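User: Quick sanity check before I run a bigger batch. Here is a single chain. Can you write out its predicted 3D structure?
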Amino acid sequence: MAGEVQNQYRDFNLNYVTGGEQGPACVSGYAAIRESLLNLLYTDMGSRFFNRGFGSLLQPLLFEPMNETTVSSIKTVLYTNIPELEPRIEMGPYDVDVEADYANHCYIVTLHVIEKSTNQALKLSAVLEQVS
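Assistant: Done. Predicted structure follows.
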């Protein structure tokens, strides 16, 4: 029974869809982790008034030139921030892929993580657009 409670969690849907069996604007399981990770990636550290420690330090890197140094910095930020702020997952040393898309001025970030409660492998891709 304790295992069942541990495996159940809900988060707010970033699309703010109302209704459903679990209440308004809720997602659970993989969708909850996905929404949480996207929220971390797209929230600038310090931008939340009552939770200044939430988010990532990716935004300043999007102003930097697109090169291998910036790609390496993005990987470092992700390895540091995500395990701290999302305790439901585990990341290994090679679980973050960052690809610079020079033609579209963006970075394609792919995370390969393990959900701790179910040992299920999850993959999430996100696009970080460079700010010029």
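Confidence is low (pLDDT under 50) at residues 1-7.

User: Great, the batch can go ahead then.
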